Amino acid sequence: MKKLVLLPVLFLFTLTSTFAQSDSKAIQLGVKGGVNFSTITSDDFDDLESRTSFNVGLLAEIPITERLSIQPEVMYSGQGFDVREIDQDNAFDTDDNIEYQLDYIQVPVLVKVYLVKGLSVEAGPQFGFKIHEELDFQPNSDGGDIEINQDDSYVKDFDTGLALGAAYKFDNGFFVNGRYTFGLTDIFKDDTLFETVDAKNALWQVGVGFMF
Questions:
Q1: 107: Cβ–Cβ under 8 A, 6 or more apart, which residues?
Q2: Which of 22, 111, 156, 173 could form a disulfide with 211 if both were Cys (CB 3.0 to 4.6 A apart)?
Q3: What are 184's strand-pairing partners?
Q4: 2-211 in CATH: which number?
Q5: Which tens digit of pLDDT belongs to each residue from 15-60?
């Protein structure tokens, strides 16, 4: 677990240090956080709704030209999906829905283009490292949590996606951003019950941050 967390952090530090050798004053480091609305896209599942969670992390903006930058990030991202309950006379004492929690350390590496001063669009690959998996039958209260260990999991430990978004940065360093990330690879492992299921992560994010 510690190795999964340290690997993307070291990647961000190494990438930033490499570019800093040429123009350290131009590089900005920052923090960010926001709200996640996540689900999975699949024709094999019905009645799936988005899970609401949060994201928080670090980023660096590395200018290439006046309007073009590279922005690597490392962030915790709470993802997964909700399954709405239809049969109220079931064996579980549940709330209105069951929450499947898939939490990742996400490492997007974005190309950022400024359209006008402060306003930018961004796109690039995102690499996800699963750090936690849990089934929650009572997401609106304590209890009902069933943690899924690696040996019992049907979900892959690594995920890839493509992130598309926009941001506005104010002169004082604060910024707001919105982003959509759609999965490029199936989340389920081969040689399991769901090996024929085509399911990919889908994630909306809105948030704020500050660049130093």
A1: 8, 11, 12, 72, 73, 74, 126, 127, 128, 129
A2: 173
A3: none
A4: 2.40.160.20
A5: 555 544 444 458 999 999 999 999 999 888 777 889 999 999 999 9
Residue with tokens 């598309």: 164
- Residue ranges per domain, the chain? 2-211
Which tokens belong to 99?
Answer: 């929450």
By 3-state DSSP, what share of the chain in percent is helix, strand and coil, each rounded to 5? 15, 60, 30
Cβ neighbours around 71 below 10 Å, total: 19
Cα–Cα nearest to 120, from 159, 163, 167:
167
Q: What are the pLDDT digits (tens) for 164-181?
A: 999 999 999 999 999 999
Q: How many CB atoms lie within 10 A of CB 44?
A: 11
What's the predicted TM-score (pTM) here?
A: 0.81
